[in-house]
């Protein structure tokens, strides 16, 4: 395995850089997949970039995906061929750029009606054709025995066969972190827990930001030629601030929708194939996806009016997922089997009209708006197409005269931090536990103190130290929710490990590690009382 030297993330050094009198070419607000993608693309073009995130990187939607890098089979069924082709191309780039975090994954659609195998098989062969050279494997029509061998946990009664096809899987939060660290390695100043508390205007134009460090309360004024609002479901907050300052009211851009995921032990569907039901009784898609030793069941699509940081699943959503899973699995999961449950808020874009023609979108999946003040807002989209979205944002920034024309986008397939060099090996997915997620940095990690002291399955003391020193972690939640994914896999196990993790975090940072807050959060993920819709 090739060893790389990780870039330190000492917070005092980062804040000292933020205090320097620098006029940035680009300031990005929001540290999810979209904002991080924009920051990385801009840094590679030689622009002076700062990215500010009010909480942790990928704290919101970008850590709560179904963990799939996919073209979108359901979009193909809707006839959106352009979107599917784009997503399949972007799928290839992600798999190439971070092979330690993203891998091909075989899926099986079980067929319980005679017509389903030929019908879905034909559609998935079109999916293969759209992927072209970016395909991961050929679609195969399966008989009942073949389907059962691949899905031994599927309900056998009435099974007529199935269809096997290929897509991708990834660790969403760690890929977001890899984007942040790669942008930093190319000169961008990237900061979490540093909130933008106001926009600065001169002559009706955005010229910078006022920011506040969440830990010390210190504030700074940042000057920037271009400001990109990439705050996901929260974009309308910054848009309203901008509109109020300029006296130009705007309508809401985002209609939030929540997707719920439930995690159970993988023995409900053992093996390395995911299960996909393309249309449940109410027309939704059901996934049963193996991930890091557990099984993810989901998802839902429920409108919400509020945009809270830690949304909870509604009782009806949990009932729906477990009820539908019981129809397709040999053994029906119950509430008692749930190891973790979590919710992601999707920033669905409302139709917009623009008098000056400044609104554009390359697909129905994301929208870019350049306000009269010059504030650039991007929202919508999906994880798989983050790179294409970033390229579109910078293209429109340049066209609007907010950024100088520089070298073209060079992020396609580029190696992210941790990716092994060509021909390099990645640690086994299981031995030592979780080490493969560090890719080429695994050797450096294992040299830190505590590499032999395992605090819980998949997390040793050295990993916690590495998270603080090189991965921007500031508290227990950062470590157990997004550097390790234990909170998303088994909330009770995460709660048990939290005191030991907190002791190491506090030793590294010299400040309170947020243990009490994390324990409360873990109770929610473990299945605390869910509200009614």
Walk me through what this model shows.
With 533 residues, the protein is α+β, with helices and mostly antiparallel strands. It has three domains: 11-61 and 174-253 and 350-399, FAD/NAD(P)-binding domain (3-Layer(bba) Sandwich), CATH 3.50.50; 93-169 and 255-347, D-Amino Acid Oxidase, subunit A, domain 2 (D-Amino Acid Oxidase, Chain A, domain 2, 2-Layer Sandwich); 435-525, no CATH class. It has helices at 11-19, 33-44, 73-77, 81-97, 116-131, 144-150, 172-185, 235-246, 315-328, 386-399, 442-446, 461-470, 476-483, 486-489, 491-509, 515-525, and strands at residues 23-29, 49-52, 68-69, 102-111, 140-142, 161-170, 189-191, 194-202, 205-213, 219-229, 254-265, 274-277, 286-291, 294-298, 302-303, 340-349, 359-363, 366-370, 376-380, 454-456, 459-460. α2 (33-44) packs parallel to α7 (172-185), α12 crosses α15 and α15 (491-509) runs antiparallel to α16 (515-525). Mean pLDDT is 92; it is low at 353-363.
